Amino acid sequence: MGKGYLKINLTTGEQSAPVEGEIVVTDENGNSLYDLFTNETDALELPAPDEELAFIPGKKPYSEYNIGIQAEGYRPVFIYNVRILDTSETIQPVDMIPLPLGATKGSAQPVIIRNEEHGLLNPKTISRFNLEEPNVGEERVLPHVIVPHYITVHLGTPDSSASNIRVNFKDYIKNVASNEIYDTWPEQALIANIHCIVSFTLNRIYTEFYRARGYNFDITNSTAIDHFFKPGGAYGWNISRIVDTIFNEYLAIVGHKEPFLAQYCDGHRVKCPGWLSQWGSCFDAQNGASAWKIIDKYYAYQLELRESNIFTENIQSYPGYAIRQGDTGDYVRKIQEQLNRISGSFYIPQTQVDGVFGVSTTESVKAFQRTFNLSPDGIVGKATWYKIQEIYNAVKGLSGMDSEGEYIGIGTTPPKVVLSEGSTGKNVAELQFLINYIARYYSDIPYVVQNSRFDSATKNAIIAFQREVGISPDGIVGPATWRALYDTYWGIVGTAPKPPTYPGYLIKLGARGDDVKRVQQALNRARSIYPSIPQIVEDGIFGSITEAAVRAFQREVGLSADGIVGPVTWEALMDVESMSMQQGAETETGTGEPGIIYRKKKPCEENNESNRPSKPTKPVVPIMPIEPEMPTAPEMPTAPEMPTAPEMPTAPEMPTAPEIPTAPEMPTNPEMPIEPYEPGEKPSQEVNTFKLLILFMLSHMKR
Question: Are 48 and 145 in contact (CB under 8 A)?
């Protein structure tokens, strides 16, 4: 018998804030193994079958455990059949949903997540991808290959009445990969399979395969058509770290714009000539094949690997080199600012914003990496860079919505007007704000454009909300729907942790200190967009010249020009500063054309083994090398200057990539159970009662 590990993370509002609660882990028979009170567990050790079973088709290489979660002000969560593999760490993210105003834990409907058998054992995955062959030469629909922040998944076949769910793109890829292959497979097999999953998914988005046919989603979780995706499912640590590094890299046929529709099957229960074999990729990697050789073996097309740095959210492209202790400059300053903003919500120490990557910045980066399941090396490589921006945007976006709610003036009494498709005006604007605010906490409610018009998208969002709260889904906003919207909104406001907006006081004439200096720095950067702003000395003293610069900025962005930096001016300054930095960043793919990372050999080279790539390679043009996250990775350049893009190669031989870092050693032999309360503190009777309920449900509601 082997042992694996389980780590559980509780967050809310699209990972914008942590949530503390009681977590109970049981075995399949309902026996309690761990009982903790936290927002994030350490790696919990659990028995698992020996690792060798993961390399034998048809064998079950994992054990299964159940999780019950309670947190004050949130719906209870029960997760069944979480898979644990020998030597692997399973990460279980949990999105906690706040209770509506006035609801109690006893009356709350629990969130129940039931995991199915793994895709390599599940009969549903035998028939795969039978809709069409790759769209070779098909006209592109979108102007560029875009990496979305979120993807909308239909939880059934396209014409079924199943609901849609909004999922973070990287989390979707991690979820699918963890349901389709084993986390303990050789690294090169994982990379090959993940490239195929990313390419297939981006093809669906780029060609608008479903949306062009009138559907309101990007992809389905029907394994006969798309991927094996399980809402709320866990993922493996090895898969997670690889996805964080290559999530924006995709296969494409040479000479074609669209991502390659990389189809595959398990290769054991069903054969699929011309497609990748999952089991075959595992055995090939065991025999020393690189990911690129595996891809080369199974697909007949002349393929190349590209990278897209075009994102749907305000995300600045990775600068192309790792940023670490000793570096200086604007990129360092940006990291420091974003970490400090995130630290208001998560347990991350603040660092001085001075553009110097010192010891305190290193410690902040390590704390961030530990919190978000990255290798804690204190180096901002590609995976850490994009994760910092992703969480920063979530925290910043939520606080921005809180400010907007205050501006709109959401009270406690809903409007009396009945709204339906075709309605317009300020009540519709309020309705759309409420929808978008609630959607951050309910992933099956779509976002809408706040245009003050009750259009078909707004109606669909209302129908999704009505289904969520148990109201007849007619898409009409009458008294019951208004009341439910208000109760849900105020339930979130009263429960969910709030990230800080700005320093918390009016920064004006006579003020001194770091906050003033921060304003001055932002104003000077904003001059690249608004030349009317006078240049000022960044001395931390709010004098008449700084006041004049603030007034000039306020006039440019349409704010009241009072020369005072309150929360609205602060947010506007940070937004414009981010735009100015992105505008000036020297990103090689800024034209929207993807960079070619490596290319499959030409047909005339089929029999020339010396020309076959030895392993997946990193960019030859024009993308910068990918920085591994672990300290065991090859040392990356420390100079902050952007390296010059190498020339396009004339030969097909591929350069060698650095290995993606290996997983850190897991802790052993934790004491069971772990005491979840402070020394001397007794758990309440309510907590004990809930623990009994958890144990009852986890032992009686099996698959």
Answer: no
For 619, the token pair is 């960019």
Which residues share a beta bridge with 44? 6
Sheet order of strands, 164-168 included:
164-168, 150-154, 219-220
142-193 per-position pLDDT tens digit: 778 999 999 999 999 999 999 999 999 999 999 999 999 999 999 999 999 9
Gap between the Cα atoms of 180 and 161, Å rounded: 25
Structure tokens at 478: 């009458």
Q: Strand, coil or helix: what is 573?
A: helix
Instruction: Please give the pLDDT value at position 393.
Output: 79
Per DSSP, what are the bridge partners of residue 37?
A: 22
pLDDT at site 52: 96
pLDDT at 236: 97
pLDDT at position 624 is 30
Q: State pTM to two decimals.
A: 0.70
Tell me the sheet residues that pair with 2.
48
CA 185 from chain centre, in angstroms, equals 23
Q: How far apart are CA 64 and CA 118, in angstroms?
A: 11
Give SS3 for 72: coil
Q: Which residue has the tokens 């109970």?
A: 24
Beta bridge partner(s), residue 507: 565
Q: What is the pLDDT of residue 502?
A: 64
Cα–Cα distances in angstroms (integers) from residue 483 to residues 178, 218, 240, 331, in the given order: 40, 32, 41, 46
Which residue in the block uniquely carries the two structure tokens 């129908």? 463
Q: How far apart are CA 197 and CA 576, in angstroms?
A: 36
Question: How far is CA 169 from each of CA 174, 370, 647, 652, rounded to the nearest angstrom?
Answer: 9, 21, 32, 32
Which residues make Cβ contacts (< 8 Å) with residue 60, sequence separation at least 6? Answer: 49, 53, 118, 121
Which segments in the chain show pLDDT lower than 50? 129-140, 499-500, 582, 584-592, 600-687, 703
HSE, CB side, 13 Å, CA atoms: give it for residue 464: 24
Q: Are strands 264-265 and 249-253 parallel, antiparallel or unpaired?
A: unpaired
648 DSSP 8-state letter: P
Nearest-angstrom CA–CA distance, 75 and 462? 21
Q: How many CB atoms lie within 10 A of CB 416?
A: 9
Measured CA to CA, the distance from residue 260 to residue 646 in angstroms comes to: 25
CB 181 within 8 A of CB 425: no
φ, ψ (nearest 5 deg) of residue 56:
-120, 110
pLDDT digits (tens, 9 = 90+) for 468-504: 999 999 999 999 999 999 999 999 888 876 544 567 6
CA–CA distance, 243 with 198 (Å, rounded to integer): 9
Q: Which residues contact 505 (CB under 8 A, 6 or more apart)?
A: none
The conformational region for residue 285 under phi > 0 = left, psi -120 to 50 = alpha, else beta, is alpha
| Dihedral angle sign, alpha carbons of residues 222, 223, 229, 230 | positive
Distance of CA 112 to the CA centre of its chain: 22
Task: Compute the residue count for the chain.
Answer: 703
Look-up of token digits 């439910």? 484
Structure tokens at 99: 């209770």
Give the 3-state secondary structure of residue 479: helix
Tell which residue, 10, 64, 74, has the closest CA to residue 33: 64
Q: Which of 561, 564, 580, 568 is nearest to 522 (CA)?
A: 580
Q: In whole angstroms, how large is the CA radius of gyration of the chain?
A: 26
CA–CA distance, 480 with 459 (Å, rounded to integer): 16
Q: Specify whether the CB–CB gap between 367 and 347 falls below 8 A.
A: yes
Q: How far apart are CA 113 and CA 64, in angstroms?
A: 13
| pLDDT at residue 627 in the model | 36
